[in-house]
Amino acid sequence: MKLVPLFDKVVLKALVAEETTKSGIVLPGQAKEKPQQAEVIAVGPGGLVEGKEVTMQVKLGDKVIFSKYSGTEIETGEDDEKLVIVKQSDILAVIE
C-alpha cells in the first residue's frame, strides 16, 4: 500500500523507542514512552491550507521529532507496520 498525503500532511515511520532506562532498568511494554522520533516516508504537496500558503519544510528521509500525542496512527497491511500521519506544524524539529 502506498500512502500519498494531501495538503500539509506528512507520513512518519516511528523510530524504535529504547527499552531500557539510562540506569539499565528494562521497561515493560506498558511503561515505554510513545516514540517522538520518526523518519519521513511521504510528504504532501503543501499549497493553500485554511487560507494560508504552506511550503513544505521537510523531505523524504528526514529524521524528525514530533509532538507526542499528535497525528493519526495507522497500520499498513504489510508487516503490520505502524505509521503516523501528522500536520507539518506538529513536527517540532529536524534531526541533523
From TrEMBL:
Q: Entry's InterPro entries?
A: Chaperonin_GroES, Chaperonin_GroES_sf, Chaprnonin_Cpn10_CS, GroES-like_sf
Q: Specify the taxonomic lineage.
A: Bacteria, Bacillati, Bacillota, Clostridia, Lachnospirales
Question: Which NCBIfam families does the entry link to?
Answer: PRK00364.2-2
Q: Which UniProt keyword terms apply here?
A: Chaperone, Cytoplasm
Q: Where in the cell is it found?
A: Cytoplasm
Q: What does this protein do?
A: Together with the chaperonin GroEL, plays an essential role in assisting protein folding. The GroEL-GroES system forms a nano-cage that allows encapsulation of the non-native substrate proteins and provides a physical environment optimized to promote and accelerate protein folding. GroES binds to the apical surface of the GroEL ring, thereby capping the opening of the GroEL channel.
Tell me the organism.
Lacrimispora algidixylanolytica
Family annotation (PANTHER family): 10 KDA HEAT SHOCK PROTEIN (PTHR10772), CO-CHAPERONIN GROES (PTHR10772:SF58)
Q: Which gene encodes it?
A: groES
Q: Which SMART domains match?
A: Cpn10
Q: Quaternary arrangement and interactors, per the entry?
A: Heptamer of 7 subunits arranged in a ring. Interacts with the chaperonin GroEL.
Q: Which GO terms describe its cellular component?
A: cytoplasm
Question: Which PROSITE patterns does the annotation name?
Answer: CHAPERONINS_CPN10
Domain of life, per UniProt, equals Bacteria
Q: Which family does it belong to?
A: Belongs to the GroES chaperonin family.
One Pfam family assigned to this protein is: Cpn10
GO molecular function annotations of the record: ATP binding; metal ion binding; protein folding chaperone; protein-folding chaperone binding; unfolded protein binding
Q: What is this protein called?
A: Co-chaperonin GroES
